[in-house]
Amino acid sequence: MKPSIIAIDGPAASGKSTLAKHLADELGYLYFDTGVMYRAITWVVISKGIDPNDGDLVVSLAEVANIDVLPPSLADGRDSDVMINGNDITWEIRKPEVDANVSVISAYPGVRKALTSQQRKIGQRGKVVMVGRDIGTIVLPDADLKIFLDASVEERARRRYLEISNRGEQVSYRRVLKMMKKRDKIDSTRDVAPLCAADDAVIIDSDQLSIDEVFVKVKLIIEKWKGSD
Prior knowledge:
Blueprint: E1 5-9, H1 16-27, E2 30-33, H2 35-47, H3 55-64, E3 67-70, E4 81-84, E5 87-88, H4 96-106, H5 109-123, E6 128-132, H6 135-139, E7 145-150, H7 153-166, H8 173-189, E8 202-205, H9 211-227
Parallel strand pairs: 1-6, 1-7, 2-6, 7-8
Antiparallel strand pairs: 3-4, 4-5
Helix pairs in contact: 1-9, 2-4, 3-5, 4-8, 7-8
């Protein structure tokens, strides 16, 4: 046997999404990055010129938004297609202005409530690797295996800076670091589902590890889990 429901949490740019995708491919499981849902709502808010601090309006948008995540339709580096109301916004949700506002919007209890129940239903079907910030603590507290992937804010800002630069967009490392620190503070101190490792999560510091080395570590954890069952 092997864990059927795997939850992977961690702060922004810790490498959790890449790890989850590798694991899902290896196991033949569904890869589900719940963060794209919050990014999609953030993109809608920004594109409509709505103040992210207008909580009531933001929540009302989250309650009616039609978000879908599909297998990738283009070989442009995407892991999946992110659709909202039939429109492909896969890369739009990765823009710096979304980075700067997603934590504010995802902290609204109404937004989280609107999206959490849908995430839970998908996860409880099994054979899933779900990645986010509150999967092991809130969305899937009974997950078979919980991983919390961490790294220093400086290393994570470096990774995000390279990711944005490689897409041909202009941004400074200093600005990315500033946004990352702001996001960490919001994520870890919000009243609803703050970012933290579940008590029974395996914590991995990826500062000095490549994604391949992290992947090997987690594969060994899965093998050990199998051996104990």
